[in-house]
Amino acid sequence: MSALSVKHLLGIKGLNLDDIQLIFKTAVDFKQVINRPIKRLPTLRDVTIANAFFENSTRTRLSFELAEKRLSADVINFSSSGSSVSKGETLLDTVNNLIAMKVDMIVMRHQHPGAAYFLSQHVNATILNAGDGTHEHPTQGLLDAFSMRERHGEFKGLRVAIIGDILHSRVALSNIFCLNKLGAEVMVCGPATLIPKYISSLGVKVEYNVEKALAWCDVANVLRIQLERQQGGYFPSLREYNLSFGVTMERLSKLNKSITIMHPGPINRGVEIDSDVADSQHSIILDQVENGVAIRMAVLYLLSSGSQPA
């Protein structure tokens, strides 16, 4: 298999196992490229990509932009802040204007779940979902799994605990879908108020005690407490959350094993994870950042139907 089974990357749910393995195989090649002195390839020289971000982003936007430039694409960056969107222009009108400028691919982050799917049904361009509301964040799910594979090898028998705000997290869903397809065991852990009632139907274990979750897992993927979504009083205070669910060195020191610590960023230090954990030898957080560029290069390349990387 040398091509993806999908035209768009809307979510991990729409990928099959062969798609994921092909993305990983291609990312390995691109990781070699970005670690050599000449990091640029001419692969997407004739492709124009618009990064349309209707919601704030730093890491994902910069990672996609760097991946696009490493592949020699022409890049347009669009932010809804200060644009005609603030004057009432619809999503479809905004994107159709971009396509009228002969854009081939659109990388989009939007606050509403399903926005990327909606666009894929109405425009003649390849859509890459960079996060849609609380739905999915497929490239984050892929880069997280790719990072786990680098550290642990096979997924069979690998135990992954996703800890934190599961209810509002698009990262959690994409991780669950991806790890399930790869054969890992998945547990979610957090306050009962932040665990969706449907989550066990996705084939994951549910735990409300962070010490038990850490003792069970080989990998702990710690999610950001999304301060911008915390209007519902899901827990008493940030201090209380840290005391009950924070991943601390004290908690890790009580384990009779070493586990891998991950975080999709940005980190709220001293809330969901303490600084000494995030910066420890247990952590592969910066590896995730590096792998994000390679994974996004792989996805862009495969969706553009180009040739093999040089």
Strand order of the largest sheet: 7-6-5-8-9
- Beginning-to-end CA distance, first to last residue: 18 Å
Overall mean pLDDT: 92
The helix-and-strand class reads alpha/beta
Q: Which descriptor suits the 3D outline?
A: globular
Query: So what's the CATH class of the largest domain?
Result: Alpha Beta
Beta fraction: 5-15%
| SSE order, one letter for each helix or strand | HEHEHEHEHEHEEHEHHEHH
**Topology-level CATH name of the largest domain:** Rossmann fold
Please give the CATH architecture of the largest domain.
Answer: 3-Layer(aba) Sandwich
State the helix count: 11
Sheet having the most strands: 5 strands, parallel
| CATH homologous superfamily caption of the largest domain | Aspartate/ornithine carbamoyltransferase
Low-confidence stretches: 306-310
Number of domains: 2
Query: What helical percentage do the residues reach?
Result: 25-40%
Number of strands: 9
